[in-house]
What does this fold into?
Amino acid sequence: MTRAIDRDNQRFKEIVRGKVRQNLKKYITHGEVLGKQGREVVSIPVPNIDIPHFRHGKKGSGGVGQGEGDVGQPIGKSPDEGDGQGQAGDEAGQHIREAELTIDELAEMLGNELQLPKIEPKGQNSIKSIKTRYDSIRQTGPDSLRHFKRTYKRALRRLISSNDYDPREPVVIPTREDERFRSWTDNPEPQANAAIVYVMDVSGSMTDEQKEIVRTEAFWIDTWLKSQYDGIQRRYVVHDAVAYEVDEDTFYRTRESGGTRISSAYVKTRQIIERDFPPSDWNIYVFQFSDGDNWGEDNTQCLKMLQEFFLPTCNLVCYGQVESPYGSGDYIRELKKITGKFENLVLSEIKNKEGIYESIRTFLGKGK
It folds into this structure.
């Protein structure tokens, strides 16, 4: 039987999760996910929720509804009180509660909020994994798989049926014909595995604010794709005029300078895909972020590489152009020339953190 306190606690958790759902857009755009606790739980700050209770006044202070104040004025808070800037004081402030949610819960909220369709992985090209089950018995096998109980019962049945069993001296010695062994079957199970390659321009025109936008958007993209696939593999590429494969930490912290050749990133990304993720077996996603500043003569080479390799190969090739005070923004105009030919090429212009929300919807809204 469920205790009343457990029901109340569960109800309170649902209220907190409701607050997270109501403010999910704010958490997405402002990156208010504090970080992972363990591998599957994320903490999100939500306004503290106080349990309603009665407050008794002093004796002789008047009856119900008497005293100063206007209709609709909150009890316990003066009209002058607010949440703005002020002098240091000794009063208690507004508290924040950290709501712990699993990655799956966040993914469900994200999908509902952005109305994202379920992804349809490559069916025939999915990886086949073999799952072994010990689900049968046979007469032959290695000693390590001998089924003692079945073997003993066979020997006992044989002795009883032949009148050789003496209850006063219950000695049961199995023969070779009595032995039974565990057996197994190999069941191929399809796995729709996904590989994500994140590509980011780290040239001098990309500021820390632009990289923070990329970090936030990448987290939510990961959150959704994890809910759609059995396994996710990630690779990270940074580039200015030259591209490098890096780890996740370096991807988000690197600050470079110099010019920009986006084609160098495409060369490195293709090498990674061909090395680690055969396109016939993997659902491949490329998410590229830049301020659109590219060496002019390099644009032709980039379009050629996209059309000849990436777009025929990948589930999605997503390009997010982050607005920068230093970048030219020309590259997205070049990409728009070929968007009509390829449904899996998705473009998004991200002016600021507020644009993350719609950018995620744009990238993942086709269910590829």
In short: The chain has a mean pLDDT of 77. The two ends are 45 Å apart (CA to CA). The longest helix spans residues 208-228.
